[in-house]
Amino acid sequence: MALSEKSCEPCKGGVPPLSAEKAAELSREVPMWTLSADAKKLRREFAFKNFAEALRFVNRVGELAEEEDHHPEISFGWGHVEVEIWTHKIDGLHENDFIIAAKIDDLG
Predict the structure, then answer these.
(1) How many domains does the chain have?
(2) CA–CA separation, 39 and 18 (whole Å)
(3) Which CATH number does the domain housing residue 42 bear?
(4) How many CB atoms lie within 10 A of CB 72?
(5) d(Cα 93, Cα 31) in Å, to the nearest integer?
(6) Confidence of residue 14 (pLDDT cuts 50, 70, 90)
(7) Does the residue 44 lie in any domain?
(8) Are 95 and 26 in contact (CB under 8 A)?
(9) CA–CA separation, 86 and 72 (whole Å)
(10) Are 88 and 18 contacting, i.e. CB atoms less than 8 angstroms apart?
């Protein structure tokens, strides 16, 4: 099943973050995202024609995050949006992070 077809499941902590090897494996399914050097975060930059388009995208990501109950860090400005994802409760990556990344890709 494709990542974008899955749903995020609540992570209450107490589980280990994905290993660097597993994170690298899953990152191949979201190739536009960059895996941090320590394999604890995913990051992607999006480009837009203007501020209004960037804001619309941020709002769509926000709606998706609420639906999935998994919330990325988002920063944006005129013509750009940066999204960073990790599971705060485990200070690293979980499969949920890759699921939300794939779903964000579908928005773009």
Answers:
(1) 1
(2) 8
(3) 3.30.1360.20
(4) 22
(5) 16
(6) confident
(7) yes
(8) yes
(9) 7
(10) no
